[in-house]
Amino acid sequence: MKKFSHVTFVVKDLARTMKLYESLLGLVPGSKGFVTEFPTVKIGILPFEKVRIEFLQPTTDADDIFNQFLRKNGDGIFSYCFMIDNYDAEIQKLKDQGIELLEAKQDWLFPGYPFRLAWIPPEAGLGIRVELAEYDALPPSEQQWGDKALSS
Questions:
Q1: Which domains occur in the chain, in start order?
Q2: Cβ-contact 5, 15 below 8 angstroms
Q3: Which residues contact 42 (CB under 8 A, 6 or more apart)?
Q4: Average pLDDT over residues 122-151
Q5: What phi, psi does 151 have (nearest 5°)?
Q6: 120: which strand partners?
Q7: CA distance linking residue 62 with residue 65, whole number of Å
């Protein structure tokens, strides 16, 4: 099972970008979105109807995947994400097809709910990075978001 979760933009100025998107989408500023700060990034979320938009701003000069993206591309769409169950089987199936993945475990995003994810790089032929997140390990609020996005 795969459930669409969100689109992620990597940006240089999170506050400015969120204001622009709130205006573009006709949202009351600050009424639906929220920002969370972590040691190396700030993440802003704007839920819009059945789509969630995630904005990520690096807050250090680390040579990580997000800063590399900004240096190469500037602000832009970094990835789109699907929640998947049977994570091990799904990831193995992709590996068996010869698709190289960048795998990670995130324990900082949802404290108490470490989850695995894998990115399929744009070079694999999909044109953009695709994130696959371990549905069963996500907190109930994230699982409910995915369930809601597919309903009605």
A1: 2-150 (3.10.180.10)
A2: no
A3: 14, 35, 36, 56, 57, 59
A4: 78
A5: -80, 160
A6: 130
A7: 9
Which H/E stretch holds residue 129? strand 129-134
Query: For the segment 51-65, what is each residue's pLDDT rounded down to a tens digit?
Result: 789 999 999 999 998
Sheet harboring 115-120: ordered strands across? 34-37, 41-48, 51-58, 2-10, 76-84, 129-134, 115-120, 102-106
Neighbours of 33 (CB within 10 A): 21
The total number of residues shown for the chain amounts to 152
Give the DSSP per-residue string, 78-123: EEEEEEESSHHHHHHHHHHTT---EEEEESSSSTT--EEEEEE-GG
Highest mean pLDDT among 4-8, 71-75, 133-137, 145-149: 71-75
- DSSP annotation of 27: P
Three-class SS string for 70-89? HHHHCCEEEEEEEEECCHHH
